Automatic annotation (TrEMBL):
<dbReference type="InterPro" id="IPR050447">
    <property type="entry name" value="Erg6_SMT_methyltransf"/>
</dbReference>
<keyword id="KW-0489">Methyltransferase</keyword>
<dbReference type="Pfam" id="PF08241">
    <property type="entry name" value="Methyltransf_11"/>
</dbReference>
<protein>
    <submittedName>
        <fullName>Demethylrebeccamycin-D-glucose O-methyltransferase</fullName>
        <ecNumber>2.1.1.164</ecNumber>
    </submittedName>
</protein>
<dbReference type="GO" id="GO:0008757">
    <property type="term" value="F:S-adenosylmethionine-dependent methyltransferase activity"/>
</dbReference>
<dbReference type="InterPro" id="IPR013216">
    <property type="entry name" value="Methyltransf_11"/>
</dbReference>
<dbReference type="GO" id="GO:0032259">
    <property type="term" value="P:methylation"/>
</dbReference>
<feature type="domain" description="Methyltransferase type 11">
    <location>
        <begin position="76"/>
        <end position="171"/>
    </location>
</feature>
<keyword id="KW-0808">Transferase</keyword>
<dbReference type="InterPro" id="IPR029063">
    <property type="entry name" value="SAM-dependent_MTases_sf"/>
</dbReference>
<dbReference type="GO" id="GO:0102082">
    <property type="term" value="F:demethylrebeccamycin--D-glucose O-methyltransferase activity"/>
</dbReference>
């Protein structure tokens, strides 16, 4: 099936197959979090367990940018296997958390894996990020951990602004192009477009930091945190590419290596930066 015919990112289809086959590395590295890792130094050891720790570190950094103060209501949009909610569930009490995803398979796994701790509440909702079935001004934080490139950004920002209370925070991570790259990325990734489509599905990496600030202003928010962690994510690429070289499906492995290698090169040259961004909803804006 062509990636464009699937409602879900192709890498999740591959991951579900690997988990179902009992692939220990896939379960360890990606059974909780499905996103890039963050290392305090480049001293990654290349193991799945090390990658899991780095992914948890990334998750916590993004959540910290949301300035969460219990008791709080939190919406995690594009929640994957529930790793971010699991992390918050372990770190805090008195949270009411809602995990939202368009893929019911991911929600089913999340519900099986994450059990609310005492004092916390968790619900899972199958919905589109551009049309959140959530109350107006009902949330203290909205999270989008490494998934916003799959969303319609303007519609998602409008929805995030709508559901956040004044003073609430939207926190996200994204691959953000430098201004000189943004126009190029707006038309796709040139010769890498097919490999990226087959590997990561429909992605939009054309929103620069200035574009994000404009989106925020248009929806009654202001930039609160801009954390460039590009250098700390670089060991991710070696881990992902080394794993792909062991895949049985050589065609898919080749496309994955092309797409991921291109992103690695762009990141090393700082043409694309991995940014953690958070935005505060201004009190003067009506819900």
């Amino acid at each position: 099936m062509n990636a464009s015919e699937s409602p879900n990112p192709p890498y999740f289809d591959v991951l579900f197959d690997r988990i179902a086959s009992g692939d220990h590395e896939a379960v360890t590295a990606f059974g909780r979090h499905v996103h890039w890792g963050l290392w305090e130094s480049n001293a990654a050891d290349g193991t799945a367990a090390d990658y899991l720790q780095a992914a948890e570190r990334m998750c916590q950094r993004i959540c910290d940018a949301a300035k969460i103060q219990p008791p709080a209501r939190i919406a995690d949009v594009g929640c994957g296997f529930g790793g971010t909610i699991a992390s918050l569930n372990e770190r805090y009490q008195s949270l009411a958390m809602t995990g939202i995803n368009i893929d019911s398979r991911q929600l089913q796994r999340a519900e099986e894996l994450v059990v609310p701790a005492a004092g916390n509440q968790i619900q899972w909702i199958c919905a589109d990020a551009a049309s959140l079935p959530l109350d107006d001004a009902g949330f203290d934080a909205v999270l989008a951990v490494e998934c916003i490139f799959h969303f319609d950004r303007p519609r998602f920002f409008a929805e995030a602004s709508r559901v956040l209370r004044p003073g609430g925070v939207l926190s996200l991570s994204d691959f953000v192009p430098q201004p000189r790259m943004a126009a190029f990325m707006d038309g796709g990734a040139g010769p890498m477009s097919e490999a990226i489509q087959w590997t990561y599905g429909d992605v939009d990496m054309s929103c620069s930091l200035e574009g994000y600030e404009q989106l925020a202003a248009e929806h009654g928010m202001r930039l609160l945190v801009c954390d460039d962690v590009t250098e700390q994510t670089l060991p991710t690429y070696d881990f992902l590419c080394e794993g792909a070289r062991r895949w049985h499906d050589q065609k898919h492995a080749e496309l994955f290596l092309q797409a991921t290698g291109w992103l690695q090169k762009a990141s090393r040259k700082k043409m694309i930066r991995y940014l953690i961004l958070s935005f505060e909803k201004l009190a003067s804006r009506a819900g």
